[in-house]
Amino acid sequence: MAMRKTRRVLAWLAVFCMIFTMHQNTVVSYATEAPAEQPAVDEAAANGFSIDNTGTLVGYSGVGGDVVIPSTVTSIAANAFAGNTSITSVTIPASVALFGSGIFANCTSLTTVTIQGNISSIPTQTFYNCANLRNVYVPASVTAIGSEAFAECVSLSGITLPGGVATIADRAFYDCASLSGVSIPATVSSIGSNAFAGCVNMTSYSVDGSNGYYASSGGCLYNKTMTKLLSCPEGRSSVTIADGTKIIGSNAFANCKAIRSLVLPNSVTTIESNAFAGSGIRDITIMAGVTSIGSQGSWTADIIYGEANSAAQTYANSNSIVFQALSSSTPPQDTEDPGEGNTEGGGGNKKPNGGGTTPGSTGGDGTGTTPNGNEGSTGGSAGSGQATTTVRGGTTVAASSVSHEKDTTPKTGDGINPVFFFCLAFMLVGVSLLAVGKRRALQRRR
């Protein structure tokens, strides 16, 4: 009887071990299959920024409005925001050191850009056709303004170029219809031939007196020695060419439609081709010193005043223009705009935004070569360029940095718990003992 009880106890123990082992395996299985913790959602991606593993912002698909680029971005790829008409302002953090071309091209709702970084150039078509971009502050680190960088920015009313700019490429400010003037710093050594073409309301160039390549007088742009007139702003209604000027350069008066009458000084010897292309000049006085006049496409004067048997008369006769010899008639006299300075620097009264210049009562360089545009010499009062120029007008919001870490949760191995073998052996012993007990019981009954 005692033996039977013992066997029964052992059998129940075996069953208990089997159940316990199965339960343990079930727990292990759950631990093995448990999903790893998911990383936090990338904040930059959630806001529509697409950033590659080099820190380059390659695209944007956010809701627009006031956009603050994350501080993890180190460069912006070409055309990253191009054609986006929903963004109204952009803040570019100090971490960004490089721009690709056409970043904001055709962003027609963009009004303000705050550049905090040390970029070296404003590349080709960076702000092309940003029709509502009004004022731009170019960082002091910039040395080059690329081709068509601000072309077709028809609302751009002021631009302050920093003291480090060396190059202003062809058509850089093409068709900036609201631009009233520009200050050229001492460092500029190259200005593209059509850099300011189409700026129909621009009335003044103002060149820093220490510039080694360019000079200004009466609001016009000359070479450093003042022997060649390079460009007359298209918005001027009258102009007095500086004495000592020898060459009227190609496109010098191109599209100056408001100027109706022009007198060339005695020092002029050469008028290059297309110097008056598309201009509104109806009568012109050309002195006997002029010996060469190039072809003038898309321009025909009503009358040319000059000396008999001069190059002026030859040109008039060849182009069916009325010629009037100076000996028999007094030519109309050019009058300078009221308050126009005629010394280098041509007036330096700064616009309140620090970007443009308008004629002043006396000359001055009016260069405005620092970001705040507070300089100006005797040319007039200088405004605080930063207040209304800005691209610093937006509120800077620090973007949070999101770090990404690998999931270091250890994985549960596939090994079998040794307890399982012990319980299995114990169960087998118990089953064997039950079987033996039943067999002996049957034998006794027989």
Name its key features.
single chain; 446 residues; alpha/beta; Leucine-rich repeat, LRR (right-handed beta-alpha superhelix); six-stranded mixed sheet; four-stranded mixed sheet; 5 helices; 27 strands; 19% strand
Assembly level: single chain
Structural class: alpha/beta
Instruction: Please describe the biggest sheet, giving its number of strands, its sense, and whether it closes into a barrel.
Output: 6 strands, mixed
Name the beta content range: 15-25%
Number of strands: 27
Describe the fold and architecture.
A hairpin with a 2-residue loop joins strand 16 and strand 17. With 446 residues, the chain is of the alpha/beta class. The protein has a domain at 44-210 and 368-402: Ribonuclease Inhibitor (Leucine-rich repeat, LRR (right-handed beta-alpha superhelix), Alpha-Beta Horseshoe), CATH 3.80.10.10. It is rod-shaped. It has five helices and 27 strands. The protein has helices spanning 2-33, 43-46, 311-318, 385-388, 418-445; strands at residues 49-51, 56-60, 65-68, 75-76, 87-92, 98-99, 112-115, 121-122, 135-137, 144-145, 158-160, 167-168, 181-184, 190-191, 204-207, 214-217, 220-223, 228-231, 247-248, 261-263, 270-271, 283-286, 292-293, 303-306, 322-325, 349-350, 357-358. Helix 1 (2-33) runs antiparallel to helix 5 (418-445). The model is unreliable at 26-40 and 337-414 (pLDDT under 50).
Topology of helices and strands:
Elements: H1 2-33, H2 43-46, E1 49-51, E2 56-60, E3 65-68, E4 75-76, E5 87-92, E6 98-99, E7 112-115, E8 121-122, E9 135-137, E10 144-145, E11 158-160, E12 167-168, E13 181-184, E14 190-191, E15 204-207, E16 214-217, E17 220-223, E18 228-231, E19 247-248, E20 261-263, E21 270-271, E22 283-286, E23 292-293, E24 303-306, H3 311-318, E25 322-325, E26 349-350, E27 357-358, H4 385-388, H5 418-445
Parallel strand pairs: 2-4, 3-5, 4-6, 5-7, 8-10, 9-11, 10-12, 12-14, 13-15, 18-19, 19-21, 20-22, 21-23, 22-24, 24-25
Antiparallel strand pairs: 1-2, 16-17, 17-18, 26-27
